[in-house]
Amino acid sequence: MSFVPEPDTALAAYYAQTQPRVGAVLARRSLGTLDAVTIGRYAVTIGAADPIHYDPAAARSAGYADVVAPPNMLAAIVEWGIGTPEAQLQPDGTPHDGEMPLGDGDLRLRVMGAGEEMELVSPVIAGTELVLETTLEAVTPKQTRSGTCVFVTTSHTFMSAEGAVLNRNRRTVVLRNPVQES
Amino acid sequence: MSITFQVGDVLPRLRHTVTALQLFRYSAVTWNPHRIHFDARYAREEGHPGLALHSHLRAALALRCVTEGLGPQWHVTKFDYRLRKPVYAPAELAYAARVTEADGDSMTLELIEEHPSGGVGFEGTVRVSKTGAVTTEGFPVSTAGATA
């Protein structure tokens, strides 16, 4: 490795904890049944006006069994089910739910999205029972113009309960030291 | 009606002003409790000048440029994007898509997010296929009666 975070920083602690887990399946779990209201609300929020997202009759006439989710909706949802109680959230509000390893302890790393690749294999229809498998693909420290960072890449495969793949996506976030340490 | 596209064709720009209200609703619907998107005081503590747009919201707006520009005869099969810089609300954004490859039932388009300053905040590539070109196992065979 040509570069590692400076010793005794939050990023160094994170890197030491997380890099050995590269390749591990972080979670495989049932997400429950995707409902039409969630799909419709997502469409309304992003301004998507196509009625296939909220009108079952329009969706059926377009050839879908029920309303269909906008392309990146599954990738965008952070917490499924009821979510994490507030007292268990990190200071920045992010949850420790296994989808994105954020380190053990109170590291207070700053996190931002960096990019994503997605393959949309089958349409995502209301009423689908979803299963998600998440794998840690890479943990890469870098020195950037804005300071030391660690880029973390995870892959996420969304499937139906029967095992049919709906979406595959590979997501990268960038982690930075807390403000006082950067 | 069938519209054909050629390499070099440019879709209509999607122009959109992202507000703090939209960020709040996007956080809510995606059950995303990350405070940089809805808590301005906290966002500033992290060094941001304001409320940061969600990367997935920017991606969703970029995808709207493609799906609305092409119409229901096409569907997205692949998409990748890289964020060049963060964006803060309120933000006047425009998304532009240009066809870079066209081979019958599939096309590739390049996508960018344009800022009023002239900068590009986001670059992406999207692959689309004709909706009638796949089986009933996947996307619909027929778009007869589809609502645009």
Automatic annotation (TrEMBL), chain A:
Organism: Micromonospora globispora
Name this protein carries in UniProt: FAS1-like dehydratase domain-containing protein
InterPro entries: FAS1-like_DH_region (IPR039569), HotDog_dom_sf (IPR029069)
Entry-linked SUPFAM superfamilies: Thioesterase/thiol ester dehydrase-isomerase (SSF54637)
CDD domains xrefs: R_hydratase_like
Domain FAS1-like dehydratase, residue spans: 34-165
Automatic annotation (TrEMBL), chain B:
GO molecular function: (3R)-hydroxyacyl-[acyl-carrier-protein] dehydratase activity
Recorded superkingdom: Bacteria
Alphabetical list of InterPro entries matching this protein: HotDog_dom_sf, MaoC-like_dom, Mitochondrial_HTD2
Domain (MaoC-like) ranges: 12-101
Family: Belongs to the enoyl-CoA hydratase/isomerase family.
PANTHER family: HYDROXYACYL-THIOESTER DEHYDRATASE TYPE 2, MITOCHONDRIAL
Identification of the protein by name: Acyl dehydratase
